[in-house]
Design brief:
Blueprint: H1 18-28, H2 33-38, H3 42-56, H4 62-76, H5 79-91, H6 97-104, H7 111-125, H8 132-140, H9 145-168
């Protein structure tokens, strides 16, 4: 059970959150628990949705974004995000089971994506203190400076959602997939 109330409906959230949640519902067809929980703070919801929306229009494709989300969810031990992003990886990004499993382990079966996922996990593990060699490795496979910045942006966004779910115990409303926890 969530440690912060999760309103059952959009109507149960603060009025200023209604348009934001209605947009989520229009996009996804429903409003997952995470968004209704975060709606307790319309300012946080607006920031979270704004960052996600901006990053979704960036240079990284949907598959790479989901790969990063899965890797970071598992690194942080967030079962809510692991469950949600497993669902999205299968049904939206169309990743296969082998790829999803590799992503959960901080890797990819695709060589270019593998560099991005490994870099994302390194950014999380090192709290952003990556080396010139780390940057060279992702540049070597063809990632642009814009994409490198976006990878770090996706790490930060996913850490935000992971921490919200872990701090408040968001009830999982996707097929449950337990996350591993980083050592």
């Amino acid at each position: 059970m969530s440690r912060v109330p999760t309103p059952d409906t959009i109507a149960g959230t603060p009025q200023s959150a209604h348009p934001l949640l209605e947009a989520v519902e229009g996009s996804l067809g429903s409003v997952p628990n995470l968004f209704r929980l975060v709606a307790n703070s319309p300012a946080t919801l607006e920031g979270m949705l704004g960052m996600n929306g901006a990053l979704s229009r960036g240079a990284l494709n949907a598959a790479t974004r989901e790969r990063i989300a899965l890797a970071i969810a598992n690194y942080n031990g967030c079962s809510y995000c692991n469950s949600a992003h497993t669902y999205l990886a299968k049904n939206v990004a169309k990743l296969d089971e082998a790829e999803i499993e590799a992503n959960r382990n901080g890797r990819s079966t695709d060589a270019k994506a593998d560099a991005a996922v490994q870099f994302a996990v390194k950014v999380a593990k090192e709290r952003g203190r990556i080396t010139n060699g780390d940057l060279a490795a992702v540049r070597l496979v063809g990632f642009s400076d814009a994409e490198l910045v976006e990878i770090v942006g996706h790490v930060a966004y996913n850490i935000l959602t992971n921490y919200l779910n872990e701090a408040f115990g968001t009830e999982i409303d996707f097929p449950v997939v337990e996350a591993a926890r980083a050592a």
